[in-house]
Amino acid sequence: AQVNFSEPYRPQFHYSPKINWMNDPNGLVYNDGVYHLFHQYNPFGNRWGYMSWGHATSTDLVHWDHKAVAIPYGKEEEEGIFSGSAVVDHQNTSGFGDGGDPPIVAIYTSHYTREDGSTDQAQSLAYSIDGGQTFTKFEGNPVLEFDDPDFRDPNVSWNEEMGRWLMVVALPTQHKVQFYASDNLKDWEYLSDFGPAGATGGIWECPDFFRLPVDDNPENQKWVLHVDMNPGSVAGGSGSQYFVGEWDGTSFIPDETFMETAPHWTDYGTDFYAAISWNNIPEEDARQLWVGWMNNWDYANEIPTHPWRSAMSIPRSIHLESNNESYSLVQKPVESLRQLREDPVRLENLDLSDETIDLSQEGISGKAFEMIVEIEPGDAESVGINVREAENQRTVIGYNSVNQNVFADRTNSGESDFFEGFEQRNDVPVHLSDGTVKIRFFVDWSSVEVFVNDGSRVITNRIFPDPESIGVSAFADGGSATITNIEFWPLESIWTE
Ligand code: FRU
After folding, report:
1. DSSP string covering 157-181, please?
2. Which of ligand 1's atoms lies nearest the C-alpha of 109?
């Protein structure tokens, strides 16, 4: 297939494979100056199948190099290489090292299809002694089995207190995760179960478990369990929730006050799934970073892109904020994205009285950009910004005073006939502070990511607007409002290939 990164709907500052199908991020690990992004990949087609680990690398989390398939589908044994994680085994606990650089060990799910058509899942290892370029499957696979055909998505990290490897892994149909510990990544000791809890309307997948400082205070740390759910999430189809609590060395104990208000959704949009965090981030850069699959199982196989399908979200740093005895997860776009900003446009005190103002004469328009708006809703019913606009379509991002919601509305955003429920509006409850709300959003050729009040709420949505829809306008309905500040930057494309 001809690939030029200017196909209709090709993301300009989000990772996408050159060709073929992609789903979950896998094996996110930092090593020796390089961020590795492995991912679920079908090397043979543009729909889900022949699951393998695709691979890309970056030194800045913004520009990506496409690499060869890292762990291929096992043809002989019909072994799908399902989701999992990767660690740098600094002490060579696994013995896979050859005395040179520490091995990178991938812990993934083997999805076996038996002769009678039934399937089974178990956890397996593959290791790299060339810095993550090539992997060898461990001959002792699988290393962990359990009496349930759905048992997947092992997420392993080094646990300082235990001095051992800690795995969290999903029992999807039981709405549970399990914790295991190991000294060598090969032999695993069962520790505990967690769940069912919170939202259980769909199967549980792709757990992640990590510690975060509360309000950036390193003296006060909490554990976060993040788990994906499909279907039945907040915006329909696939989405994710998180739990905040303590780790006692054996079990995860969620805070009671936190559970009283469960479920807590990670993202209020349709298209943020299977996010996992990078392992082995250097200590001086003690951020927790993750990326999610920007798609939804409701329609993932049908979205109108070719010769590739799917994209990753922008990488985000994750933080924990305390509020009223509880906690909320905060996500911020990685700082390094700022390098893509072209010349800014700034506007102040735009008064809107039941009207829509075209911003293109101010120099605000385009298909790939970042924008920050600060809104005083006044007595307007709703106020906000239309993006990717033409006469007959627009995606609307704004604040609704009647419902006290920030919303992203794609009911008339472009192509939608590939899925019946695609035309929808996503709301997230927001409290105004001093009568204002701040919304930062990233618009690409086929997505919007909306960060509310510095990332305390997020809406991530795919859209498929006409490539000619480049208008941006500001509106207030049902009264008067002021947009006190607008900052706008066109964003440069990351693709030079
Ligand atoms: C989540 C998921 C995982 C599984 C993978 C298979 O999107 O269903 O649970 O490992 O995709 O591709």
Report:
1. EEETTTTEEEEEEEEGGGTEEEEEE
2. 10
